[in-house]
Amino acid sequence: MVQRTTDLERQQRKEFGARLRELRKERGLSQEGLAHEAELDRSYVGQVERGERNISLDNIYRFSRALGISPADLFTPGPR
Amino acid sequence: MVQRTTDLERQQRKEFGARLRELRKERGLSQEGLAHEAELDRSYVGQVERGERNISLDNIYRFSRALGISPADLFTPGPR
């Protein structure tokens, strides 16, 4: 049974992606640079930032380690 | 290509699961009760709490809404 993505879920993914982009740019990293640090694919970084991915816990941790922050910071507005 | 779960990932999932259980118990909820609030399966709640699941962003939000907290609280120790 394929579940449809709800509007709320789409909005949450967009918010998460925008926050990831903000934190990446704060650190002067390109998508390529973040992908390299997190050992993930550059196209995947772009998809997450555009809110196109229902990212997993493992990858949330990969991004937070690559950015040198706590995963909580990815859910908390404001400079880190 | 099936990726092996690393020890670090296993440990992160366990930590997340233990934090979810702590917050659930703080609110006097059973696994059944949390599952009902989050509109998820009770067995899934148990698996996440035992660190057996690489939970997705959508379900992290479902749990935080059901617990009345921010997703960041699921990554931050201490009472909420």
TrEMBL record, chains A, B:
GO terms for molecular function: DNA binding; DNA-binding transcription factor activity. Keywords: DNA-binding. Gene3D superfamilies: lambda repressor-like DNA-binding domains. GO terms for cellular component: cytosol. It comes from the Bacteria. Residues 20-74 form the HTH cro/C1-type domain. The keyword Zinc does not apply. PANTHER family: HTH-TYPE TRANSCRIPTIONAL REGULATOR, METHYLPHOSPHONATE SYNTHASE. This is Helix-turn-helix protein. It comes from Leucobacter komagatae.
